[in-house]
Amino acid sequence: MLLTLKAIQFPNHQGESNKLDSGLHYVVGDNNKIINSEKQSSIIFGALNEIDSKNNLPENVKGNNIAGSSNSIKGTNNNVFGSANSIKGDENLAIGNNSDVRANNSVSIGQYSYNERDNTVSFGNKETKRQLTNIGNGTEDYDAVNVKQLNQKAQAAIDSANRYTDGKIIDTKNEAINTSNMYTDNRFNALNNQINQRINQLDNKIDRVEKQTNAGIAGVTAIASIPYSTSENFSFGMGVGHYQNGKAIAAGAQYKIADNANVRVNIAWDNTDNASVGAGLAIGW
């Protein structure tokens, strides 16, 4: 059963039109909703958030925590920081805007990040990839390894192979030396080609991600730069955006559907052949 805060007058809330069940919750904001969490304690700072915990939980189960607006949680012991994020599962963390977690004990970080695997961390989605920079050298079995470490290990392998080959050459006859040199050179060339290929592939991926990211920023800039006329019922505008090597053009239209309401639709095209679309509704009273 849902009770409005105005009806039960909890001392641990500030805001209007919030609907909570009988759990011990702390809410600051308007139009928030908490259901199926009678045995939990949840915290909300923001507006238009919704928490739907599991029924039949034992006593003293941790609740959910939200800081932001328009977030949705279905599960227990989740944490959300940002706006328009969605979590379906338990023990998750979402940081950013429009991120989505559909797993357990997982993390989504960044705009539009998506995660559907348990016990993992996501920094993007299938279309948007992000780099994890300034990583220290790994020291334990399950630490991350940076590119510098990879290059050092590759060079160490080459140096070790050189020392081994040189030692064998000293103890062999001229014919064996020539054969060994030919074999070693071929192996070294193959190894160097493989390393160079991997580095080039990594460079290409980095360049592609950077170009897509810059183009996305340019697209957002173009949409934000569209001017509109507020005195007319219908208004059309265009804008351009540029960020580093990213370029975009955007167009948008605004229509006043009533004296106190209007709708707006925007679309942007960038130099990576991607398009972004946005729509909004404004109501005043």
TrEMBL record:
Q: GO CC annotations?
A: cell outer membrane; cell surface
A Pfam family reported for this protein in Swiss-Prot or TrEMBL: YadA_stalk
Which parts of the sequence belong to the Trimeric autotransporter adhesin YadA-like C-terminal membrane anchor domain? 231-285
Its main subcellular localisation, reduced to a broad class, is membrane
Q: Does the keyword Repeat apply?
A: no
Q: Tell me one GO biological process term.
A: protein transport
Question: What InterPro entries is this protein classified in?
Answer: Coiled_stalk_dom, Pilin-like, Serralysin-like_metalloprot_C, YadA_C
Keywords from the UniProt entry: Cell outer membrane, Membrane, Plasmid, Protein transport, Signal, Transmembrane, Transmembrane beta strand, Transport
Domain Trimeric autotransporter adhesin YadA-like stalk, residue spans: 131-167
Query: Signal: is it a keyword of this entry?
Result: yes
State the compartments where it is located.
Cell outer membrane; Cell surface
What family is this protein classified in? Belongs to the autotransporter-2 (AT-2) (TC 1.B.40) family.
Protein name per UniProt: Adhesin YadA
